[in-house]
Each structure stands twice: as structure tokens, then as C-alpha cells.
């Protein structure tokens, strides 16, 4: 990962002073870097880390960073991981152009080294992420997201990127199409479990702080615990809860009513069971690979995705 940081820093470098300042700011506020870790551990598990693996990890991280910058503009968000967002500091126009710049750097990195297979995998992820986001927007307008639609949204919006991490790792090690497909499927399952864990955070804060944060409810987001709870409710109860969710309320009493409803209907237990089921299916695929230190660490990273506390 130390060696990767040098590769990634070089991939982001610009001769435009403003861009260079912004790139340094982005590097300073980087998160856990789970996605490049999945690239390297997948590559090591499937045959060995090569120079192409570093480029693949950089391509993934450039894409991921670009989507975060653009997401903050779309969501009008001023904070990201405890730091001010790019749009908060430099306004929307600059933020959109920075996201475009990061995407172009990723494309050029792959084209320069003729990493066509890696570029195809990541481009497919970009398409799916865009489709997933638009599907969610379309369904959110009517708040008619069923469980099937929910899983399709998160498979495209979140899981596709982690899926591409695992596929890029396998492809960069020189693996055959069957192994790449297996790793891609494992990554998709991990990504779905990862998103369900994110959905649970909004409810789990109650246990840690004694009061619900209700961020998803305030934003009228239909997540798995709520979708499942609503499927078990009668018409009048469902209408009452949907009225609160659709109003984007910030009233603590109303938010608590939704939390109590989800708890009473065992929506959280259902979501946790689903998360663990997807995680186990991913682990079963990983267990088909030979034992190695990379495999051990890969499985540890998968467990971390569903056990993390933020």
C-alpha cells in the first residue's frame, strides 16, 4: 500500500497549479482505501501482484474518487469523511471539472499501457453505477422500491465497483476468464453485504448513542430494514410510516416512530441475516482458491466490511 500511494500520487499529478492543490487536498483526506486493498489481495490470491496490478488499483481509485466528487455536487453535500468537500471549498463548477479530470487520468493511464482488459472491467462498472443511481432516483420519486429493486440498485450502484476491484485484481495477475468471473461474482456479493451494513448504520447509532440519527429517513431513503418492515405492515400502518418518510421530517419523535416500527417488525434482524448470507456466499467462492497469506487477509477484509463500526 505504501508503494501504491506513490503510484496513485503520480497518477493524479497535474501541471495546473489549482488542480495540483486540489489533488493534494484529496490525497490528504483519503479514507480506508478498501477498494485498492481488494485489488491487491485478489491479485495475490489469484497468481501474484504485478506492475499491472498497481495501475489497476490506481484506475479503480481514480474512478472511485471521481464519483465521490461528483456525488457531493449532486447531493449538495459540504462534508466528506470529516473534511470539507471539493464543492464546498471550490464551488460546483470546479468540483465537476475535477471529477472529469480524475476520470480522464484513469482512462489515459490504461490507454498509455494498453491495459484493455482492466479498462473494460472498470468501464462496465461506471456504466452500472450510473444506471443504479438513475434507477434509485426514478424509484425514490414514488417511494415504491421493492426488495428486488433495492437489490438491483445496490448491485449496480455499490457492488459493481467492489466487483470490479476483485476482477481487476484477478485480471492483472494473468488469470483466465473463469477465475476472473469467479472473483467478479465474489466481489459483487461482498459489495451487496457492504451496502447493507451501511444501511444498518442509521439504525445501529441508536444502540451506541441512545438516539437515532435518522439520516436515511430525513432523506426519504428506502433501505432494506425499512423495506422489509413495510412488507409486514397493514395498510393503515404502512400509510402512516410512508407519510413520515416521504415528508423528509427532522422531528425526533416522528423519526423515533419509524425506528420503533422497523424494530417491532424485525427489519434489522432480517437485514443482518441477508448481509451475513451474502458474506457467506462470497466466502464460499473465496474458499475455492488455494490457501495463501493473501487469501487469509482477503477473508479478514471481507469480515471487516460487515463488522466495521462506521
Please explain how this structure is put together.
There is one protein chain. The chain is an all-alpha fold and 310 residues long. The protein has one domain (2-194, 278-300, 302-306): Farnesyl Diphosphate Synthase, CATH 1.10.600.10. It has 14 helices and 2 strands. It has helices spanning 2-12, 17-28, 34-46, 51-74, 86-112, 116-140, 147-172, 177-209, 215-218, 224-231, 235-246, 252-264, 267-286, 293-307; strands spanning 79-80, 83-84. The protein has a two-stranded antiparallel sheet with strand order 1-2. The chain is globular and about 60 Å long. The two termini are 22 Å apart. 41% of the residues are buried. Mean pLDDT is 90; it is low at 207-211.
